[in-house]
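From: lab user (bench 3)
To: helpdesk
Subject: output format question, protein + 6-O-phosphono-beta-D-fructofuranose

Hello, I'm new to running complex predictions and I'm not sure whether the block I got back is the full result or only part of it. Here's what I submitted:
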Amino acid sequence: MGAKKIGVLTGGGDCPGLNAVIRGIVRKGVQEYDYDFTGFRDGWRGPLEGDTVPLDIPAVRGILPRGGTILGSSRTNPFKEENGIRRIKENLAKYEIDSLIAIGGEDTLGVAARLTDEYGIPVVGVPKTIDNDLSATDYTFGFDTAVGIATEAIDRLHTTAESHMRVLVVEVMGRHAGWIALHSGLAGGANVILIPEQRFDVEQVCAWVTSRFKASYAPIVVVAEGAMPKDGDMVLKDQSLDSFGHVRLSGVGEWLAKEIEKRTGKEARTTVLGHVQRGGTPSAFDRWLATRFGLHAIEAVRDGDFGKMVALRGTDIVRVPIAEATAKLKTVDPELYKEVGVFFG
Ligand code: F6P
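Helpdesk reply: Thanks, we reran it on our side. This is the complete output you should expect:
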């Protein structure tokens, strides 16, 4: 019997640190356990269509500081594809894959949990999302980088807002959870922070904006893309759905700036940070966390501990059942939001 062969894939929205995980997995797996690796391209599309890339130590050299993922990513949902699970099983057999490591967020890991629990395909999960909204782990890698980028943008927007004495609305990512908005808004000294967990009152936002002008400062309003007004629906530019049924967010920032202008008579502009938050080199913290996740994921494979996800608890990396970890989103506690509210207005 040859060496064990492990398949690795990255799914969902990309995130700084993915390459650091891949490198950690391959370096430890080859050096300590003599494993062979196969990279599957573009998330679950790779095993579904048998699209592979070689994954060995030369392939992971120099990738630690690189953003994106050398394996590519997609939001392919095999449960939505004809004979999806049968095709995955056939391809795993064809490439003689003993087990898989899936690096992804809620959706990619949701598939991983079902593949292990319902279809007996051995998968270990690694949590990833800049939104930091996976329960069971204190932090996901990519979040720290995104917060750093958003904070730098807010710092820069302060000076231009003050030069023109106008309102600057900054739309950041955060589909269901306002972690990026909360952390970057606090770190950047925003005057209003709006998160998906709590519907906002436009009148209240305008009152904060006005009080900030009264203090002779220009207001910065940070709004998570998933935040919603108290009266009305989610503001969207685009209604299309991905294969996990998610709408493409963005639009609330533009909408809010118009409302503020209309209601306060003050000039307002919007900056949508978008994918800038996801691109480029990971922060030192994200490289550290992603590397440790990689090292612990390969250990879980060695232990045959499938259906588990690695997670950060304090400074320890632990293993938790994927199904449990993806069942509930980690959202911002109302008390924490209230605490930050002292800086509003
Ligand atoms: O899920 C992470 C995330 O960053 C969300 O905050 C955002 O809505 C989504 O990705 C956008 O991803 P894409 O443009 O790749 O579909």
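A quick orientation on your result: The first strand starts at residue 5 and ends at 10. Let us know if anything else is unclear.
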